[in-house]
Amino acid sequence: MIEVRGLTKRYGDRVAVRDLTFTVRPGSVTGFLGPNGAGKSTTMRMIAGLDAPTAGTVSINGAHYRGARAPMAELGILLEAKAVHTSRSAFNHLLALAQTNGVPRRRVDEVIDLVGLREVAKKRVGGFSLGMGQRLGVASALLGDPQTVVLDEPVNGLDPEGILWVRNLLKGLAAEGRTVFVSSHLMSEMALTADHLIVVGRGRLMADTTVADFVAQASGTVVLVRSPHATELRDLLVGPDVTVTSAAAGQLEVHGLSAEQIGDVAWEHRLRIHELATQRASLEEAFMEMTRDAVEYHAHTATETEAETLRRPVTSGDPR
Amino acid sequence: MTTTMTGPSTVVPRFPGMRVTQGRVIQSEWTKFRSLRSTRITLLVSVILTIGIAALFTAVTANRWSHLSADDRASFNPVVASLNGVRISQLAVGVLGVLLISGEYATGMIRASMTVVPRRLPVLWGKFAVFIGVVGVASLVSTFVAFFLGQSLLSSKHLNVAISSPGALRMVIGAGVYLLLVGITGMALGGLLRNTAAGISTLVGLYFVIPPITELLPSSWSNDISPYLPSNAGEAFWGRPDIHHLSPWAGLAVLCAWTAVAVVLAAVRLVRADA
Lengths: 320, 275
Ligand SMILES: Nc1ncnc2c1ncn2[C@@H]1O[C@H](COP(=O)(O)OP(=O)(O)O)[C@@H](O)[C@H]1O
Ligand SMILES: [Mg+2]
Hints:
The complex is a heterodimer of chains A (320) and B (275).
Chain A: E1 2-11, E2 14-24, E3 29-33, H1 40-47, E4 55-60, H2 71-74, E5 75-78, H3 90-101, H4 105-115, H5 130-142, E6 148-152, H6 160-175, E7 179-184, H7 187-193, E8 196-201, E9 204-210, H8 211-219, E10 221-226, H9 230-237, E11 243-245, E12 251-255, H10 259-268, E13 275-280, H11 283-316
Parallel strand pairs in A: 3-7, 3-8, 5-6, 6-7
Antiparallel strand pairs in A: 1-2, 1-4, 8-9, 10-12, 10-13, 11-12
Helix pairs in contact in A: 3-4, 4-5, 8-11
Chain B: H1 22-34, H2 37-64, H3 70-75, H4 78-83, H5 86-107, H6 109-116, H7 121-154, H8 168-193, H9 196-215, H10 219-225, H11 230-238, H12 248-272
Helix pairs in contact in B: 1-7, 2-5, 2-7, 5-7, 5-8, 5-9, 7-8, 8-9, 8-11, 8-12, 11-12
Bound molecules: ligand 1 and magnesium ion.
Residues 40-41, 80, 152 of chain A line the site of magnesium ion (MG).
């Protein structure tokens, strides 16, 4: 379990993460979604204790990570940027990490086989492809058989086969009762991997929800209706929670009602329907809509700050 | 969730006895040290320089002894002659020290190291322990070999002295300890500056550039500053007694103080700053 409370990180006057609060629970895969620069990597570095929060706290499995007796049994982490000395072999890299916590040598061989790096285990990591580097990163994260696994953009640079492998691995880890927290800037990937979603935009929490709820919440479903009685039907459908728009004559887009409800209304009033289609917003669309809000919000605050700076010399008065 | 943030973790490690100890971190650092070819080569270069320059210097001196001026003969010290290689090999040892830590920052390895040992300091102590063990032994072996090889080359002109002659043992051990301390300072600078080029430049500046510049100052100033510079303080310990130098043990103390300051600054930065 990862508990993040009021987490804030400032680099100079740039706020990378702003007052984030969320909990990542064991037993399912939690996706950490946000566009590039949203603060995902920064949050994960704070979870691993690499960066100190400007404010707020993080706990791993209910305790402070820094004080853990066996840190590798608590948390395994794959960072977005490579964290490997390029001149060392994969085996020696993993062995050196394992030795710090007293992880037995046979486990090093075990994870090498698990990630499929057996043939290149004695080769310099510097010669590895991006995908092999990611596999090595996954291997180091799993070395201590950790209760909590954090992976920053693990599918970056992987081929389709590798992506599928990561997806199944994450699901398997969650099924074993582990806490799995995985970041991505790709909604489509999260849709296939994650059960739960933490969405961030510009360092702020945008959503903390299940994948299914996220889509519904972000844009709801739209029902497309084609009917020769479009105008009459529209008047019958509109209500407090229902909006109806029309893109073309004889066509309606209905938000807030299901296809069944619309069909029933039409039948009751003996109105003919030529087409009735539910259009579920794709995850990518839902995600874009949510982060667009974040961008707009920030553009707005930026203008405010600018206006304030411009006004300041006037209101404070010139001492001369 | 209402879980408290302060309780101990209830996670039971899969591998019995799993936990971080200083001894295990030292073992890990030894794995890191021995598994880098650049480390082994740099160490070998320093050993070859210490011994090779001693052999070259003493052989040339013995060969040309009859052509040397009376002044040169009077100031000749056979122990120093056989240890002169240290003046060059200190650069190799210092660079090795810088690289051992700056290399982890350059490659990003430091983030993996700090994640598995989140208290951080055991990693730094582990690196120092391995360095002291490996480089300390290599430095002492090389200064002893340099001494005996140098004396045997000087013996053709009967210029050689025994290890039991006054100050000889202290100087031979001193030269080895000096190399080790330069290397430790290099490590500390690597950790403090987190950058190979900056670490090496600072080390070279401190040991090779500032001393000759100080000599250009008015002598009333340079006499006050010069003996306390790390290279000169070190030479007071391993070199010949000189009126411009501190006493051997004061020299060692001053050199240790420089090293300690660098180590403390590196430790503070490691614990305080983001990794
Ligand atoms: N070490 C740092 N120093 C200064 N700014 C940083 C640093 N790390 C991240 N940032 C900034 O913080 C913001 C969030 O970055 P990051 O956490 O990498 O986002 P993400 O992983 O979601 O793409 C970005 O604007 C980035 O430029
Ligand atoms: Mg990132």
